[in-house]
Amino acid sequence: MSGWTAADLPSFTGRTVIVTGANSGLGEITARELARVGAKVILAVRNTEKGDAAAAKMTGAVEVRKLDLQDLASVRAFADGVTGQVDVLVNNAGIMAVPYAQTVDGFESQIGTNHLGHFALTNLLLPKITDRVVTVSSMMHLIGYISLTDLNWKSRPYLAWPAYGQSKLANLLFTSELQRKLAESGSPVKAHAAHPGYSATNLQGQTGNPIGTRLVKVGNRLATDADFGARQTLFAVSQDLPGDTFVGPRFTMWGPSGPTLRSPLARDAKKAAALWDLSEQLTGTKFAL
Fold it and tell me: Considering the entire predicted model, what is its pTM?
């Protein structure tokens, strides 16, 4: 598997995959490649016009549906509109290091979009999912710290990058606790996470911070392309892996795709369980199996 690429994807004919944030960047490539190998792909996007434009460039069975992860009512409406089974859910959408803002439900926007929106979506869809849930995290989870008493930055001075790191750490703790619950319930569904390394996508150009945006644009000169980043997600979506596998490039930013390491904080089972309980309270959704 050392040279695995999207060209090695197996057939997904007859399978249904939902990809959030699939109108651009890693999500668009993930959706494109899965549609290419026969999947029915639902592009779950906030901006359906952009989703339609992305879908027009794809081959195969592609459908665009409205999903705003910053609005739990939209998440519920999307989940209610999904009929039949879903083989794979890819929690890909995200925002990075943006200025402080709140979601419709009053969550800090990064934890709200990157974690709580996907947490709710996964729980609402779980009875329909047959194979796996893949959540896109980041190596920036290494700078993350989960504050269970101030998850939404109400009392701490807001810092964009630590807030992003917290949300990406939350992705990994969510994946671990989801896998524990799935195994405990006897479900065959698996939970995996992936990180792209450092891929140059439109995400890095939308921090809303002029200095931060300039820095990431300089960093993009050393970055891999979006196809490489999406390869990590596609590996997690398609390969036979143990539950709670975290997939990424072997050498952090470059190298073959495969299981990779996570920080000690991302292996804290007690924090994962506590974050799950808090996320249930905040979103009004529960593990449904």
Answer: 0.91
